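FAQ
Q: What does a multi-component entry look like?
A: The components come first, one per line:
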Amino acid sequence: MVALILVGLFALAPPTNVQALDTPGDGGEAITVEWQLSPDDNIIDGYEIHRSEDGVDFAMVGFVGRSRTRYEDNTDDGQEYYYKVAALADTVRTFSESSPPALSSPQWFNNSALILLIAMLIFGGIILYYIYVARKGKELYIRKIAGLEAVDDAVGRATEMGKPVLYVIGIGTMSNIASIASINILAEVAKKAGQYETPLIVPHSDPIVYTVAREVVKESYTSIGRPDLFDPDKVFFVTQSQFAYAAAIDGIMVRERPAANFLIGWFRAESLIIAETGAITGAIQIAGTDSVSQLPFFVTACDYTIIGEELYAASAYLSREPMLLSAIKGEDVGKMVIFAALGIASLIGLLTRFPILTIFQ
Amino acid sequence: MKIFDYLATIDRRIIYFILAIVVILPLVFPRPQSVRVMTPAQKLFEAVDSIPEEKVLLIDFDYDPQTAPENEPMAIAIIRHAFEKRIKLAALSLYVQPLGLAVKALDQVREEFNAQATTYEDSIIYGRDYVLLGWQPPPIVPLLGLGISISGVYPTDYYGYRTDSLPVMQGIRNLNNVGILVSVSGGSAPLWWVAYSQVRYGVAVGAGLTAVSASEFFIYYQTGQFTGLMVGMKGAAEYEEMVAQLDVPGRRRASEALGSLTAAHLTIIAFIIIGNIGYFVRRRRK
Amino acid sequence: MNISTAFWVWVSALLSLCIFSFLYKDNPFYKFAEHLFVGVSNGYLVTLTWHGVLWPAALRPVLFEGRWWLIIALIVGALYLTRFIPRISWMVRIPIAISMGYSSGAAIPAVIQADIVRQVQGTILTPDNFSRWNAGSAGVIWTIILFIGVVCTLSYFYFSREHKGVLGVTSRIGIIFIMVGFGAAFGYTVMARISLLIGRLQFLLGDWLGIIQ
Amino acid sequence: MKTRIPLFLVLVFGIVGIIPYYSQHPIIQGSENFIRNDVIRIVAAFALILGLGSLLRVHFDKIRRSRPNWQYSYVLIIGFVVSSIIGLLGGRVGEGFLPTQIGGFEFHMQVLFENIIVPLGSTMFALLAFFMASAAYRAFRARSLDATLLLVTAFIIMIGLLPLGDRISPHLPSFVQWIMDIPNVASKRGIGFGIALGSLATSLKIILGIERSWLGGSK
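Then the predicted structure of the entire assembly, as tokens:
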């Protein structure tokens, strides 16, 4: 009520400097109306936006609340519009001057996507640079993953106990990065097992992964001069059914009593059955996967777990393959960029009044 | 300590039997369980509740039979909420098996309301109150197509009607006319709605998640990319609680399960503790 | 206890028991149920693909709605079938290239914006993020802990330097955050698995045997 | 020719996928929309049937060579053929011309879905609760500091999620929410950055023709 009495005595001051311009960087059909707050902003209800096609008769097209200075109006391209903004208090309104005519049109670049473009160029550039560098054969350093020491110890222990080693690649196909990484680690384990003449059992659930793994194991044995060690019955295809595969591996664990189990690759819920039986038979278990939902169970059921990206790093470390090395290095530098962005943006966000978050909108 | 040697070699099937009993008893002898509504589910409820008259609620059914026990109570709770408040509802799915479950859930709730309805106005009519748009693979087609034109992606709905001809779709052109898009999912579809549809068209996204992948989704809730979340059967029970306050009929399956959930959780914790005691006793003896 | 008399309820219940029999051991009932599941699921896929996609969105527009240019897309799609013809099986790469190229392209800006830019935005130390928790001054501490957790977890997955010195300390802190995160996932997964069992028993005890109302 | 055309196509359609994020111009949005709705959709529809072809071939092969469990392949094939006929000719909800109802007894596709696919699928995952319980008892050990920290957090969450947790102390559910909102988000976001950079690298390499494994065996 108080506002009304005040308003009754003096006329409301209208908003000033009303501007209308084509909304930048959009697909057209939109005009942004901007104005300066009316001096009576704190006692009014809000602002009404009125539009006219000939500058004479206006009709209301929108309303915004108090202390707002912007409104986006849907328009037809190719039609000129005039705008007036009225300060509104209950039923009393005072109009501003009319804005100059404005015309909406589409633009080719959406400038609110500028940050996205810069980020794409930075990260894309880093990844491509390291592919180029790796292809030229430049030496790229990667630290040794702690998990790989655990692999050597496990094979050593199985040899002492004269028991076989079991290597489970999981239920992934060749399109799972984890399966491909696991095959590189299998090659290393096969070499180690060959040196100690310890039997290596490798059951499979994907026919294509099976054919690739067979060649890899055979090639590992030949590379240490022991092609005779390759036993086709030890590297075999079991079944494509998720739970039947897990049940079959349990059977092998109970019968053959391997002293070291490697569960490395792509797993889903069947990982529980395999890891459990392995724990009961008392074998050393090394797990490794990038399926985040299975990692908690491997951590509690196995002796050592290679977590997510460590699996890719281990595979790159062992195979020294340029594409894998370039991926790890490129992603490492990408992480440096993220560290830097977090640090700099936080400094700006803390020390200055600049609304840093709008940059990342 | 022979007791721990015996305990260590218990046959696996005994453990299965114990778990079955522990879960069945609270179902046969239910005790009412109250559930406290947490903020993620509260925000989702408020977002759906405040959908304006001219906008539509879009539900993406992305759960298959494997996670139906967790996700279906969520979907049913939201559908009841929408029908009770007369919010216009459009449903779709990115995969084929969830579509069958969409038909099942929508039919069930429609029958629940029509059983109580007396006049044409307060009953639920397909085409007037809701539409099942159906399934158009591959997922990238609806994920990026709905922002431009819904009928472009779904020229006809699941039952073969012309989408644009349905009363519920009048004035609904694309995602700008969608109040909120809720993805009830057993997988990663909610992430795609955020990464594809929200990044390009800015639609508000909520999710009903299986508890397995829930921990990875909270990063999108903290930034506000997800407006609200229902997580696992407990999240469903929370939403059922809020919908019940609108005195909507129908069984609350998630809330009925809370007794068994409590018993099972305590049993699993007991199993882990006993197992570990045995483990440490045997390790010290070695 | 009024046992259901509906034929289909009995079919559902018996098929559920076939799967549960795997708990005793792998047996013919489980194998039968598993193979039936794969068979009927693919029958459902064929049905939905024809009624939902091939007819309304591909064949009918060309044959009856005169949108003849869709024939080009139909021909390109048909190239998938050349996989079974050895001499021209390389042509299957054309439809694969189109689908894979488009989905890879559409993924790049989506992943950058949703999984990198917005995640950085949610972690920055700034008053707007402090107030996001609407926990008053405690919000400052939560945001700092979050910031430290993200940086330390990220440092654990840094492979270009040994985990020694500062990097050794940050990765130690990182693994603590990772383990708490796994604990949270573990707890929620237990709830998920149990819920799935409860859901099945609600059907068997309720709809089938009528023990629970 | 066999590789240059596919690599050219993967680059062109990759760019078609990227551009609409950076320009809202109606010409760009409209043409990309046409390519997605009319080209990508129809091309991909054929891929759905492809997987089926290899599945049936595996099981016909199993029967012909009478490999172990070949009898069950008959169950699979018969189940597939019968359900396809009912579905294709009988319609999705029985609207087709093949009658899918005898008296009160209905057997159209939606009925088969709700009474064969749903029970089998959901029971398959209900088994996991039993495997979880057994593994909890026999395998989940606090064998290291990391595993101990994991199990303690899991216990807090498991109790805090229950109505029981709320009765123990009203702060417990909010503490669970705190764990999910702060430490969990911190670790999953840290892990997420690595995964995001990895998938970005993979998509980029596919479009630029550096990653070629999808070209398949035959060069």
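Q: Is there any commentary attached?
A: Sometimes. For this entry: The first strand of chain D starts at residue 101 and ends at 102.
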